[in-house]
Specification:
- The longest helix is centred in the N-terminal third of the chain and has 32 residues.
- This protein is an all-alpha fold and 337 residues long.
- A hairpin with a 2-residue loop joins β1 and β2.
- Strands 1-2 form a two-stranded antiparallel ribbon.
- Helix content is 76%, strand content 2%.
């Protein structure tokens, strides 16, 4: 017969064995897993291919993370699953082509495209989302409206710009050599700009008053309203930020990849949702990390599979996270009432 003392000793032993991992916070555990995976890939395929895939993963993670931030801000603040977000990325890239065609230098055309896309996102709030909220539209109506808006944006781009493959007109041939590793100059630029933008967004959300109000609004809308926060102002700023970041993400994608067509937004959308869920729905810091993890996972997978299966990796991670950790890495489990 097993005595109580024996049971307690067995539980204490099991706790001692599991404590080294269970005591780690989730971000530290994630970092440890990524380091172990990188080491395993370096052993299996060689350090140079593993490091090259890692660099490519950071490039992909930069534009994925920025796109996911806008998506998770809208999801957290407005509880809206915005299926049109991927097409805002497309709009940003094609606005750049438009402004460059009008004669602006490429950097100014990119900046003008980000402003124009932010204005477009705010316009959708005024003519679609605000009236739907006032009409007390349900989740299904909002969901279908987002899909419809995405189709309108995509086919509008195809109508005016055509469906053929486009480029931003930048030099995609030059590259930078770092020892045995190589990185396209535009990819390096996209990586620097993307990581810098991530840091700026993170600091803005952490230290500025509007960032704090947006996080408070996303955490508890009712409490934010009774605290005197101007909710409509927060909603407007959220759409402007989401549009601006979506355009930047689309431009970085177009810059890093070199060529694109109006359908790249719907292809990227799954990775953006995967990054959002991975980091924790409604958590912009989680979206930053989730985007980098998705980028690394997809590029590391090219060492094992054909590159055309990269989007499936994001889909697999999305399913696994929903099955085993639906609240995400930085999310919080819902309290039981």
């Amino acid at each position: 017969m097993i005595t109580t003392a024996q049971t307690e000793r067995a539980q204490a032993k099991a706790s001692a064995l599991s404590s080294p991992l269970s005591a780690l916070p989730r971000p530290a555990l994630l970092l440890a897993v990524l380091v172990v995976l990188l080491c395993a890939l370096a052993v299996a395929f060689g350090p140079v291919p593993a490091l090259q895939a890692t660099i490519n993963g950071f490039v992909a993670g930069s534009y994925t993370g920025l796109g996911a931030i806008g998506l998770t801000l809208v999801l957290g603040v407005l509880k809206l699953v915005n299926f049109a977000h991927g097409d805002l990325l497309v709009t940003g890239a094609y606005f750049t082509i438009l402004f460059a065609w009008l004669g602006l230098p490429l950097p100014l055309a990119m900046l003008a495209a980000m402003i124009a896309t932010a204005a477009l996102a705010l316009l959708t709030e005024k003519i679609i989302w605000q009236p739907l909220r006032q009409a007390k539209a349900g989740s299904l109506q909002l969901f279908l409206s987002a899909i419809g808006l995405g189709l309108v944006l995509r086919f509008s781009v195809q109508f005016f710009a055509g469906s053929q493959v486009r480029t931003l007109g930048a030099n995609v041939v030059s590259s930078i050599a770092i020892g045995p590793l190589r990185l396209g100059t535009l990819q390096a630029l996209a990586l620097v700009v993307g990581l810098t933008a991530m840091i700026i967004v993170g600091l803005a959300l952490r230290f500025t008053s509007i960032g704090k109000e947006m996080r408070a609004f996303a955490d508890n809308r009712a409490l934010a309203e009774v605290s005197g926060i101007d909710t409509q102002h927060i909603i407007n700023v959220t759409w402007i930020a989401a549009g601006f970041l979506a355009a930047l993400s689309g431009i970085l994608y177009a810059t890093a990849i070199g060529s694109f067509n109006p359908n790249f937004g719907i292809t990227l959308l799954l990775s953006l949702f995967a990054a959002t869920v991975l980091g924790g729905v409604g958590n912009p810091y989680g979206a930053l990390v989730g985007g980098l993890v998705i980028g690394l996972s997809q590029e590391w997978s090219t060492l094992l599979f054909n590159a055309r299966w990269k989007p499936a990796v994001g889909f697999a991670l999305l399913i696994l996270m929903l099955m085993f950790m639906p609240q995400g890495i930085f999310g919080r489990a819902k309290r039981r009432s």
